TrEMBL record:
Similarity comment: Belongs to the class-IV pyridoxal-phosphate-dependent aminotransferase family.
EC number: 2.6.1.42
Catalytic function, reaction form: L-isoleucine + 2-oxoglutarate = (S)-3-methyl-2-oxopentanoate + L-glutamate; L-valine + 2-oxoglutarate = 3-methyl-2-oxobutanoate + L-glutamate; L-leucine + 2-oxoglutarate = 4-methyl-2-oxopentanoate + L-glutamate
Cofactor(s) named in the record: pyridoxal 5'-phosphate
Biological role stated in the UniProt entry: Acts on leucine, isoleucine and valine.
Protein known as: Branched-chain-amino-acid aminotransferase
InterPro entries associated with the record: Aminotrans_IV, Aminotransferase-like, B_amino_transI, BCAT-like_C, BCAT-like_N, BCAT_family, Class-IV_PLP-Dep_Aminotrnsfr
CDD domains according to UniProt: BCAT_beta_family
Gene Ontology biological process terms in this record: isoleucine biosynthetic process; L-leucine biosynthetic process; L-valine biosynthetic process
UniProt-listed SUPFAM superfamilies: D-aminoacid aminotransferase-like PLP-dependent enzymes
Length: 306
């Protein structure tokens, strides 16, 4: 409602948006030692609901493990905080951003004396790459930056510091007139986007890089694999995709909580298929939106209703 003060949940309390500040010597600010999530609440036919919140919580807690970053709140507390944020701010649909990081305490690389601070924010956020992108796809470039290998930084943990690589790749693409990047892994195989997983369609079958390719284990990726298999598609979910296969693909698309299902119509100025959203992409995309808007009864256990 207009006039209401926007609210953020910070370390167990609801605080006004403008007051949700941190100390400049916060460990996570200096060393990228935080973990976060990005989920969405949808305005469904059955009311507002968070999509696959339990899986986002699973990944949130798991992401802290390599860093021994223990989140001092329970799943129930985080869930209640998030639902309350949606209620207080009257958000029918929203992007949801939980974050946990080593806070202010000491500035050695070892975070021994640092508390683990936790916050959740929600805000309305439309199509990540634009409405036009959902319908006609985006133009992307293969980045000159490689993704860090999982042997360098665990890529399956959604760590704040990892996103400097995403920024480098994404901004390089945008400086060159593209909407987004595709990032190869250290071995030169296709990994994913800066904030999206990648799918390829060839001869009616669907391929997506496997977890061994140094990707994030995307929740939308899992959703799309499930929806595609339910529709009879063969999905190769542990694929190794070479750069050259991008150009000769029938269709390509990105998936992500922010990006949802976004078609890719050109890579490095080469048209993919007919240079527009392909038929398989369209089918999967409409199945995805039917699902998250609850136009179907399927997978109701994937929804946490307000
Ligand atoms: N890869 C990266 C690097 C990401 O940041 C994201 C967004 N979380 C994804 C893939 C997609 O994951 P999800 O579908 O869980 O949002």
């Amino acid at each position: 409602e207009a006039g209401d003060i926007e609210t953020i949940w910070q370390n167990g309390e609801f605080v006004d948006w403008d007051d949700a500040t941190i100390h400049v010597l916060t460990h996570g600010l200096h060393y990228g030692t935080g973990i976060f999530e990005g989920a969405r609440a949808y305005d469904t036919d059955n009311g507002t609901a968070i999509f696959r919140w339990e899986e986002h919580l699973d990944r949130f807690f798991a992401s802290g493990k390599p860093y021994e970053l223990e989140i001092p709140y329970s799943r129930e507390e985080l869930t209640e905080a998030t639902l309350e944020l949606l209620r207080r701010q009257d958000h029918d649909s929203a992007y949801i951003r939980p974050i946990a990081y080593f806070g202010y305490g000491s500035l050695g690389v070892s975070p021994d004396d640092c508390p683990t601070d936790v916050a959740v924010a929600t805000w309305p956020w439309g199509a990540y790459l634009g409405e036009e992108a959902l319908e006609h796809g985006i133009e992307v470039m293969v980045s000159s930056w490689r993704k860090h290998a999982s042997s360098q930084i665990p890529t399956n943990a959604k760590t704040t510091g990892l996103y400097v690589n995403s920024l480098l790749a994404g901004e390089e693409a945008r400086r060159n007139g593209y909407a987004e990047a595709i990032v190869l892994n250290k071995e030169g195989q296709v990994a994913e986007g800066p904030g999206e997983n990648l799918f390829l369609v060839r001869d009616g079958e669907i391929y997506t890089p496997g977890l061994s390719q140094s990707i994030l284990d995307g929740i939308t990726r899992d959703t799309v694999i499930t929806l595609a298999r339910e529709r009879g598609y063969t999905v190769h979910d542990q694929a190794t995709i070479s750069r050259g296969e991008l150009n000769t693909a029938d269709e390509l698309f990105f998936t992500g909580s922010a990006a949802e299902v976004t078609p890719i119509r050109k890579v490095d100025n080469v048209e993919i298929g007919n240079g527009d959203r392909g038929p398989v992409t369209e089918e999967i995309q409409s199945a995805f939106f039917d699902l998250v808007e609850r136009k179907t009864d399927a997978h109701d256990d994937w929804f946490t209703y307000l």
